[in-house]
């Protein structure tokens, strides 16, 4: 009988771990879908929906420095994606309701009247607030 109890305990621990991993995987897919939704807004020109996906206190960092939500939303009105490809998305759970997403993106479009094509690495922090996923932070680093 003693052999069965440790086996049962191990089975319970493994089942619990699998449930947590499945939940993390499901939430990570939700976060990636929100990141794609953000990018699709920049393709379609739906800047109001784009803004609704950002936390009011969001901060963004790129080669030009850092900016808050209002500045980013205003600047994106002169930005239109034509195409993008996300590669190698990875997730780190930060808390019960937040994930850090990293990936490589190759994108093309028009920014402030200039055609562009670039590849960058992206880090984005997403958190669930009032039942909705919001982007709190994003950073882009040029790929070489």
Main pleated sheet: 6 strands, mixed
Question: In the residues, how many domains can be counted?
Answer: 1
Structural class: alpha+beta
Residue stretches low in confidence (pLDDT < 50, at least 5 long) are 7-22
Report the span from N to C terminus. Answer: 61 Å
Overall outline: globular
Extended strand count? 6
In percent terms, what proportion of residues is strand?
over 45%
Count helical runs: 3
Identify the CATH class.
Answer: Alpha Beta
Mean pLDDT over the full residue set: 87
Secondary structure: helix percent: 25-40%
Reported by name, the CATH topology is Nuclear Transport Factor 2, Chain: A
Walk me through the structure.
- A six-stranded mixed sheet has the order 2-1-6-5-4-3.
- The chain has one domain (4-142): Nuclear Transport Factor 2, Chain: A (Roll), CATH 3.10.450.50.
- Helices cover 38% and strands 49% of the residues.
- With 144 residues, it is of the alpha+beta class.
- The protein contains three helices and six strands.
- The chain is globular and about 40 Å long.
- It has helices at 4-44, 47-52, 69-76, and strands at residues 54-62, 65-68, 79-95, 98-111, 114-129, 132-142.
- The relative contact order is 0.16.
């Amino acid at each position: 009988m003693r052999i069965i109890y440790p086996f049962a305990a191990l089975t319970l621990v493994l089942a619990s771990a699998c449930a947590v991993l499945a939940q993390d995987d499901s939430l990570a897919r939700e976060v990636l879908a929100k990141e794609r939704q953000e990018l699709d807004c920049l393709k379609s020109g739906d800047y109001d929906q784009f803004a609704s996906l950002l936390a009011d206190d969001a901060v963004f960092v790129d080669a030009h420095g850092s900016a808050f939500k209002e500045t980013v939303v205003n600047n994106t009105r002169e930005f239109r994606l034509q195409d993008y490809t996300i590669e190698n998305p990875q997730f780190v759970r930060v808390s019960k309701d937040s994930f850090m997403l990293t990936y490589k993106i190759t994108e093309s479009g028009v920014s402030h009247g200039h055609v562009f094509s670039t590849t960058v690495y992206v880090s984005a922090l997403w958190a669930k607030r009032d039942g909705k996923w919001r982007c709190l932070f994003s950073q882009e680093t040029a790929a070489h």
